[in-house]
């Protein structure tokens, strides 16, 4: 029987060389080793079967002969990374997923007919789809795609467009009747009216709306009087709009799937020679990896950099001072100032002042990355830094202008609110509140007054959206093993980390009750092994364990059995030498899974820094509490403090 892990003051540590001090130093070195040449962090996203399938099929549609080597290499990668059940998941570690499997099956139609591996993979995929859909009939495949996403056509329509082009929906003359039409003619109205137009897609899917709408129109013309004529007349306008919002890199949102969907749809519309297609192919060929795969997005450079800054600046003050003296922090501050968007964005119409998840041209300003950049800048530059203060003022106003009427923060566009990725959500709102609080005292009186109102509204929103059990459900992170794929550990830990900063900002009226309920949920959902998964009973991961441990340490300001258990789990499961193995907890657009190589390093470093700070603040006669693993009885007698 597993004994309970406790925190016992002055007991021995769990194993020689496994103290928090050693772990903290090792993680710090890993973090610094992963920096790019420009002094920030680019990270490394998991290769994606879905992205690889769409990119390979798009290249096949555009130039099947000239792109043959890339297509064949991508298909070999897909075959090598199929699950044993015949399907594919979004990452090589993910369970089989209907959308990904349908797209991989469609991509395999581009294979050389003599390729035995591809033929066997197609047969296995057909068996998997049959088990899920009931048959391989076009109606069954269409139902499988449409049911998963309901009325939101953002991703179901692209899947069916690709299936139609691959011949999975029957002869071309009838295949398009299974593909929902998209009202691309709405591009004729001003972008600021889109929130009122009832679009069947979310804001980021505008390129797909245009390309797939035109493709459907040209393959299955409407029978409504005048509508086909109107669409004929507006097609040139729509294609010009598509060309205007295509970024310089050629990649819409820096995403291979969205870019590939646009390219193959334009081919289906008879527009294979359109300049948008040429630039899309340029993006796909520039971003393919050496093994023939594509990631779901080029990188999350801004996001991982700002998260790394928060982890590093949470280290003991002496360590932060050494990092500053070594010149580690200044390039990050300069890079963040350079990457703030300073002009209205042509894609979403976003005002200047925000940050995107990447510095590449396909990025779009969003609430989470803007909040992260603001918090990082506050750590890197004081209020006497005029450039940072000016950037912060613009960023804070950008967040306030984005705030919805319900008090919450959406991802990209204020007021759309119809589909999940355009609605207010707790994780973004909590992060935005933390950014507002970080700069509150350094702002002008006028901006401070706006922030006070915005923060109060956001806290009310978080109070309303807190689940009855004390948890919060995030939008951009999930857990494949949890019910509904929810990751309440991530959402709750992130909210606790944000709200714990607010006591001095005049918004504390409801915080105590909210935070105590959230802390109780984190305690109750710790696994018996001392770690955390998405909820209790799901496999523990480095990312989730580290976030929960850090949140409890910062909120409580003292060590307890839960914090102790989390640190023991991390020490046992973080290897001595090799890089940490990331878990697929990230949720991309359309709920696609990804992992990021830096997440476990960043979050584990943040947990070690927070726990170390707790120990340093505890009164003692020179000895800090030490971790004890009562289930093993091993000890080394070394303290766990750092510095």
List the helices and strands and how they pair.
Layout: E1 7-8, H1 20-33, E2 47-48, H2 49-62, H3 68-80, H4 98-107, H5 116-133, H6 138-149, H7 153-165, H8 172-175, H9 206-219, H10 227-245, H11 256-268, H12 275-287, E3 294-295, H13 301-312, H14 317-325, H15 330-339, H16 367-380, H17 386-402, H18 426-440, H19 445-465, H20 488-499, H21 511-524, H22 542-556, H23 561-573, E4 586-588, E5 592-594, H24 599-617, E6 626-627
What attributes characterize this protein structure?
single chain; 643 residues; mainly alpha; Glycosyltransferase; 3 domains; two-stranded antiparallel sheet; 24 helices; 6 strands; 2% strand; disordered N terminus; disordered C terminus
- Assembly of the depicted chains: single chain
Helix fraction by DSSP (H/I, runs of at least 4):
40-55%
**N-to-C SSE string, H for helix and E for strand:** EHEHHHHHHHHHHHEHHHHHHHHHHHEEHE
Number of strands: 6
Report mean pLDDT, rounded to a whole number: 88
**Computed structural class:** mainly alpha
Top CATH class of the largest domain: Mainly Alpha
Gyration radius (Cα, Å) is: 25 Å
Task: Tell me what the CATH architecture of the largest domain is.
Answer: Alpha/alpha barrel
Share of residues in strands? under 5%
Instruction: Walk across the major sheet and give the strand order.
Output: 1-6
- Classify the fold: give the CATH topology of the largest domain: Glycosyltransferase
